[in-house]
Amino acid sequence: MTDTPKTMCAVVLTGHGGLEKLVYHSDWPVPVPELNEVLIQVHACGLNNTDVNTRTAWYSKGVSEATTGQGFGGAEDEDATWGGAAITFPRIQGADVCGTVVAAPNASNAHLIGQRVLIDTWVRDWDDPLNLDKCGYFGSECDGGFAGYTKADARNVHPVESALSHAELATFATSSITAENMLNRAAVAPGDTVLIPGASGGVGSALIQLAKRRGARTVALCGGSKAEAVAAIGPDAVLPRAPENLKMALRDAIGDDEVTVVADVVGGDTWPQFIDVLARGGRYTCAGAIAGPIVEFDLRTFYLRDLTFTGATIVPPGVFADLVGYISRSEIRPLLAATYPLADLAQAQEAFIAKSHVGNLAVVME
To answer: Taking the CB of residue 105, how many other CB atoms lie within 10 A of it?
Structure first.
């Protein structure tokens, strides 16, 4: 670490609230890696909903509204993060890191030095890696990648061979690993038809690609202004975000008014329609609720039609390595809508919250 600077640029979250809680520093201390960690020079870091939701305390049970990007007066600090435990401040957020390993205190990790890497976003107790209660999220329970340097356990660090740019590689980690986990939880396979609300977002667009990679048929829901861009990703059909009659719209688009899987990150007022189009024995998997977390649920639909519901948050070990393989073999492609300099992270989050883009946004280091 002799050539590594002592300070770096970083955007630091100082507490729950509005965008003013994101404070840019040009002299923040460079992290010092411990024995099993490596130091990574960050080239780019993607944005995701967890950053916004944690900042605004949206995960708190005191909040019942859609994701808005504003501070919530009803939130409680004690359950204001994804895991329901208080976050400590100051905190450097950012999970979707593309960077180069520059130091490794443990000689057994020296082979990583100089390699371009992605970071598995799930921080584990490696003595008990399957214990969900012992899992954390990179950029939440520890500092992340909205900085010039970050550190990570070497077991979370994955070299990637790709011609893609740093910013393009920074679009994959959270959105694609979330999507792959949802598809695993729903056991999506050839012959399935997957309905994807919110298909223009990072997770939704990844769901289209990853479900098609498995041989499933995909039906995307999105706003009219984004339909052309979403169609270019390759779904089998694109429907309006909230059709007046979803069954009829499906029948017109694919010749069938039912689907076998709903992969949802939206929720909100249209949620009952998603459940109504699930075929008997169908599967619903959920990893978000950007249109609102409180929905109307008829238990009769659930049990009379033998439906299976799964939540999808913590990703098991090994799935991230699968994802890196897909990237290296060009089986999925990045959807980079725009980049911003690190100093403009607040502006980038404003654009992310507005959701006028298709795909992902990333900040790049100056």
So the answer is: 17
Amino acid identity of residue 273, one-letter, is Q
Sequence-ordered list of residues with C-beta below 8 angstroms from that of 244, at least 6 positions apart, any chain: none
Single-letter code of the amino acid located at 257: D
Tokens of 67: 């994701």
Q: How many CB atoms lie within 10 A of CB 40?
A: 26
End-to-end CA distance of the chain: 21
Over the stretch 63-122, which tens digit does the pLDDT of each residue have?
666 655 554 444 455 555 656 567 889 999 999 999 999 999 999 999 999 999 999 999
CATH of 7-171+334-364, one of 1.20.1250.20, 3.40.50.300, 3.90.180.10, 3.10.450.50: 3.90.180.10
**For residues 36 and 153, is the Cβ–Cβ distance under 8 A?**
yes
pTM of the model: 0.92
Those residues whose C-beta lies under 8 Å from the C-beta of residue 49, and which sit 6 or more positions away, are 67, 288, 290
